[in-house]
Every structure is written in structure tokens, then in C-alpha cells.
Amino acid sequence: MRFAQRLDEHGDLHVLPTDVLGDVRSGVLDDRLFDVTALIRAGYDDRSTRVTPLIVTSTGPVVAGEPLPGIGAPRAWQSGHTGAGAKVAVLDTGVDPTHPDLVGAVVESRDFTDSPDADDHVGHGTHVAATITGSGRYQGVAPDSAVLNGKVLDDHGGGYESEWRARSPTPT
């Protein structure tokens, strides 16, 4: 297997297998998957973790230009099912409400950690929220839904259910 390397405008090193270059150019694959510098910065290096995260799997071909076909999202949107009026709770590392795909989507935030805020300093919760209600380059499954941001994982992506449950209000 051969690889292509390049530095982006921020000085980040991207390493891409040559057999995916066409898919990256056409937008089928996101170039950020191959940004080695950013992956290391996010803690996906051998020094930071003992496991390799699973980024993508597929049981069949993905059709370029048809978002989320495997779960029938395009048909649902055509039928008017866009998530309008629905609120979806994202319990994760927080959500960045200023992310271009999420502007106006986060309607409430609550921090259940020791972090000073409910913002996402890891990126995972923001990614999850955009998968649900993103309205930018990649449309989410329910693009018209609203997000309730519940930060239950700390600024390093860690936490235990017992910790955030202990900080939750007791039901009356």
C-alpha cells in the first residue's frame, strides 16, 4: 500500500492511502480522518490510549451524494420527518453551540461534571449532536430537531454514570 502525505494550512500532517484519494477529493471520505496531527492532539496516539478507536464500519457500499441511506433518512425527510418539534438529549462530552452545523440548535445545556462549563472541549459530543441535527456540509438525521446538551463526560472524555447521576436532581 502506498501513502500520500501533505501539510495543511495549519501545519497538520495528513497521511492518506493512495487508494482513497479520489474519495477524499469527491467528499465521500472526510479528510479529517487522515489528519494525523489532529488525531494525536485529540489523544488517539499510542502514548494516550491503549486501544484504537473504531471510526467507521460498513456492511456495503456507501452511495456518494445520498446521505444516510442505510437508515432511510432521505425517504423520511421527503415525507416531512425532519425532527421539527423534537428535542434530543446528547449526554456526552458537551456540545459546542457555536459550531457552524449547530448554531441555534442547542436550546439548553447542563453540566454534570467538575468542568467549569458545559462546552465540548473534546469534540465527541459536538460530533454526536451534528450527526443528529447538523445542518451544514453534512446533514444530520433529524436536521430540524433541537439539542439538549447534557455534559456527563469531563474535558478529557472520561466519567462514570454514578458521578453524573449523583449530580442530577432527584426526581420528585
TrEMBL record:
Residues 83-162 form the Peptidase S8/S53 domain. Keywords: Hydrolase, Protease, Serine protease. SUPFAM superfamilies: Subtilisin-like. Residues 152-166 have a biased composition (Basic and acidic residues). PROSITE patterns: SUBTILASE, SUBTILASE_ASP. Pfam families: Peptidase_S8. Residues 149-172 are annotated as: Disordered. The keyword Transcription regulation does not apply. The keyword Protease applies. One of its GO terms (molecular function) is serine-type endopeptidase activity. Signal peptide: none annotated. GO terms for biological process: proteolysis. Coiled coil: none annotated. Belongs to the peptidase S8 family. PANTHER family: CELL WALL-ASSOCIATED PROTEASE, SUBTILISIN-RELATED. This is Subtilase family protein. It comes from Saccharothrix texasensis.
